[in-house]
Amino acid sequence: MAVDPELAIDLLKELRELTSDENGAQRIAWSPMWLKARAWFQKKLSTLPLEHHLDPAGNSWTTLRGASADTLILGSHLDSVPNGGWLDGCLGVLCAFVVLKRIAEQYDREPPATVRLVDWADEEGARFGRSLFGSSAFAGTHTIDADRNRTDTNGMRLEDALANCGVSVDRIGEAQKERIHARAYLEMHIEQGPVLEKLGLPLGVVLGTKGVERHAITFFGQEAHSGSTPMTARRDALAAAAKLALAIKPIALKYPDAVCTMGSVKTFPGIVTAIVGRCETTLDQRDLDTGVLAAMFHEAQEQSRGFAEEEGCTVEWSRIWNIAPVPFHPELISLAEEAVWETAGRSHRMPSGPLHDAAEVSRAGIPTVMLFVQSLRGISHNKIEDSREDHLKLAITAYDRLASKTMDWIAAQR
Ligand SMILES: [Zn+2]
Description:
Elements: H1 5-19, E1 20-21, E2 24-25, H2 32-45, E3 51-54, E4 60-64, E5 68-76, H3 90-106, E6 113-119, H4 133-139, H5 158-164, E7 182-190, H6 195-199, E8 203-209, E9 211-220, E10 224-225, H7 237-253, E11 259-268, E12 274-275, E13 278-287, H8 290-310, E14 314-323, E15 326-327, H9 330-344, E16 349-352, H10 357-363, E17 368-373, H11 389-413
Parallel strand pairs: 5-6, 5-7, 7-17, 8-16
Antiparallel strand pairs: 1-2, 3-4, 4-6, 8-15, 8-17, 9-13, 9-14, 10-12, 11-13
Helix pairs in contact: 1-3, 1-11, 3-11, 4-10, 7-8, 9-11
Bound molecules: zinc ion.
């Protein structure tokens, strides 16, 4: 019994037709278009002998009961950013659909293990700024108190938008009950970066998601007149910040997969006739290795102090947010590599810079791995997001092989 990659691609195109406009996909979580995408997907599932329910966090679960309660979970997310692409999230959900269909048909409706498909609620956090909403509720890492009063750009509260979709924020923790009998989680996703394209490879095996250190860094100098202050007497906060902006590249380049980004610079008073007295910047640092992340953080701190001193300034750091690296399961990584080798003849192990629902599942202690398929031009969260169709077919086939291998692996754990 073979999986049907064509069907997955046809369905992806059908969904694109149904939920996009001239600017791209508009499946923003908790919106009418998102509910429409979910209703469309339920219709496709209704042809199979499956049970379906929404959990208290709004995650959509479809279950094919097997001879054993031990459960393999396949999934991703149907929601998109505004003006998004046709593959981010949806590819993983439709891959899971065709694999579930193949398993249901092959085992005449009772596979050796239970297989569940999950469509996570609000992976993107596009409307309320809270990413991985449903999967973090599942993992028990989501404390709603920090998010309850978030509002969208129209001033609507998260709590109210969720209530409109039948989700009560006070109950989202109950989604943790869905973890029962979970033995493994597999997710297919587009890479969203340029690495596989550069290497000329269709598929990659994801080692885990990088940890993140995100900080606000403010340099303090002295506002002064741009005409009357000699160059030697200046305390220019922007000069110190600019030195740091150039220093983060050599810091990151010491490590093979590390990245550092200064994404925001604000100057005060910010006028053409004044030396910058205060410069507020942000720094985002990522790596899969905790030690590398800590080393980069300390080095950036140290250098910022040196640059501040050189320019007669001071500097202050405050943490915006951080998360530890989430390495995936070593045995599932090996199975994923086998599946990719058998399908594409070549493989590549790589960390993920973006976070994914899979990271939350892994944090919950469920063995997890992801596959990446090459993204053309490395672009996503944009209507031009795309992947080659022959690569998508390889991705679906490899994911199907991985699902079979993982079911055998689950059986062998008993
Ligand atoms: Zn995604």
